[in-house]
Structure formats: C-alpha cells, structure tokens
Amino acid sequence: MTDLAEAWLSIVLLYVSCYNECMIDAVIFDMDGLLIDSEPFWRRAQLFAFGTVGVTLSEADLRHTMGRRIDEVVAHWYHERPWKGATRQDIEALIVDKVIELVKTEGKALPGVNKIIEFFEAKSLPLAIASSSSSEIIDAVIDTLRIRGHFTHVYSAQNETHGKPHPGVYITTASLLGVPPHRCLAFEDSPSGVLAAKAAKMKCVAVPAPENKAHPYIQIADAVLDSLAAFDEALFDSLQAS
Asked: Is the same domain home to 78 and 90?
C-alpha cells in the first residue's frame, strides 16, 4: 500500500470511529411531564397529602422538588417543615394513590408522543422509560396511554440508591438496554432530569414547561423544544453528528 493510500485509510478509519462514537443506538424517555401531563396531578396530590398534616406548599415549593423521587420530596419537606402524626411513608402513600387515581381518570398523552415513538421505531431503535415515579405509577401511565408494548424496558428510580439528578437511573436503564450511556438519547422535561441525563454522559433533548425553560440546567441540554412534536429528522441527524 502506498503512503497516500495509507493516509487515506487512516482518515477513513478515523471518520468511521468518530461516526460510530456519535451514533445513537437507544432512546430513553422520562415520563411525568414528558409523555403525560401528570405534573398537575403531582401538584394536586402533594397539596392534598401535605395539607392533611398542616403543611402548605406554594407553586415555587412544588417546582423546587419537581422531577425528584417522591420519598426524597417527602423527606425534604419533613426536614424543612416537620409535622406530627402521619409518618413520611403515610404521606408518600397518599400522594402515590392520588396520582394513580388522577392518571386513570384524567390522564392523556402529551402532543407528539405517538409521533416520536413511531419515528424511532421506524429506525429500529430500542426505547425505554427511566422515571422517578414508582413502578405502580409508571404502570398506571403506560397502561392508560396504551404504550406499554413500545418499550423494551421500563425502569423506576425507586430501585436506585439515589433519584434524579443522580444519573443512576439512566446508567442502569442503558445497561438494561445493552447500550453504553454515551450512545443513548434521553428526553426530559425537568431540570433535575436533564442534569441526570447529562451526568450519565447522554445526549439530551429537553421539553420543559414554559416556567422552566430558562432554568440553567435546562440550558445544558443538547436541544430544547416546546413539544415532542417538534422533534424531526434534521434534529436527529444533528444530534448524531454533534
């Protein structure tokens, strides 16, 4: 082989290596506030449950703990505003039961959910859910939306030592998929979720609520959209190449 041929081969091999490194081999979705507009359900459930022990939370309080595991949320407010009577586990159970009730009676898929599932299935990419919610709530959501069969794995952060913004839930979900985290694309709506996905070294598309769009954690996402429906081939290609 000539020196010129060897040089070209080196360039091609380097290109292939970089291309393979950038490839997206799996897609992981958060759930609450992304696939289903359940954040209002969580707010209503928390206001109800904490109200039973005399703890009043503001909208700012609720946004502060958005995206975190419910046991961590309850522990946070017990530390900040301790109450008497009901245990933390009692309050957690009240919140979970109320959210499940609201999901089953009022839950609807957010715009673009079916479209984006079809988009990635057409590319034969495995899909998973990595949620801070309990398994019971995840089951209620995916059954209500009738999307269970589209996901290879459904995983709850309750199985991790720490919830989001710790990256554990994403790292474990990637392992279940058999894909390195840096070859996964995550979709998130909350600041803590985006931080978790990026800490796991994943590409991340944020679809935040309007009030969270300017949050500094949202801004570290690789792309920020107003809706899942806005995701398209051009953005997918740019994420693969970036």
From this structure: yes
> 142 to each of 69, 101, 206, how far by Cα in Å?
18, 14, 21
pLDDT digits (tens, 9 = 90+) for 187-237: 999 999 999 999 999 999 999 999 899 999 999 999 999 999 999 999 999
Q: Given a cut of 50, is residue 119 above it in pLDDT?
A: yes
Residues contacting 192, CB < 8 A, separation 6+: 66, 67, 68, 164, 165, 217
Distances (CA, A) of 33 to 30, 107, 132, 228: 8, 11, 11, 11
Are 46 and 140 contained in the same domain? no
Domain count, the chain: 2
Domain holding 102, by residue range, is 39-106
Q: Is 97 a catalytic residue?
A: no
Catalytic pick among 25, 30, 222, 226: 30
Kindly name the residue from 3, 32, 90, 232 that is annotated as catalytic. Answer: 32
Question: Would you call 32 a catalytic residue per the annotation?
Answer: yes
How many angstroms separate the CA atoms of 29 and 49, rounded? 28
Structure tokens at 221: 């996402």
pTM (global) more than 0.90: no
